[in-house]
Design a protein that fits this description.
- The protein is an alpha+beta fold and about 130 residues long.
- The chain has 6 helices and 5 strands.
- Strands 1, 2, 3, 4 and 5 form a 5-stranded antiparallel sheet that branches.
- The longest helix is centred in the first third of the chain and has 12 residues, at about 20-30.
Length: about 130
């Protein structure tokens, strides 16, 4: 795995293409009935590479005038992992394709929500390649 090539490929623009803000909005539209009722946006972030693992995060970014409460985000990994609008398996396939990884040799997992700050929580997405 070429770490430099992967890091150069996973630009903010590439991450936005993989997980556009519209997907976050559609998720909250389905969840709440109106995406404006959400207290945060979901963005995909690249965190780094260690050994045969590529670390991403779903960044839960508080919306202006809203509160990013822990009780709203701690159960989210389970929901994200199975929600069809998020389509995590499809997202991982898209990442593998972008990076030229063999789809058959990758696994993924979601970690627990971590509170980075009052207005940013992160849910780790870890892709193992081998």
């Amino acid at each position: 795995m070429d770490k430099d090539k992967i890091a150069q490929t996973l630009t903010p623009e590439a991450l936005e293409d993989l997980f556009p803000i519209e997907r976050s909005n559609d998720f909250f539209e389905a969840f709440y009935g109106d995406q404006e009722d959400s207290h945060f946006d979901i963005r995909l972030g690249f965190e780094g590479i260690r050994d045969n693992r590529i670390f991403f995060s779903f960044r839960l970014i508080q919306r202006p005038g809203k509160c990013l409460a822990c009780n709203m985000t701690y159960g989210l990994p389970h929901v994200l992992g199975r929600h069809p609008l998020i389509n995590l398996s499809g997202l991982v396939d898209d990442i593998a394709r972008l990076l030229g990884l063999n789809h058959g040799s990758i696994n993924w997992s979601l970690g627990s929500t971590a509170e980075e700050s009052r207005d940013l929580h992160k849910i780790p997405l870890i892709i193992s390649t081998g």
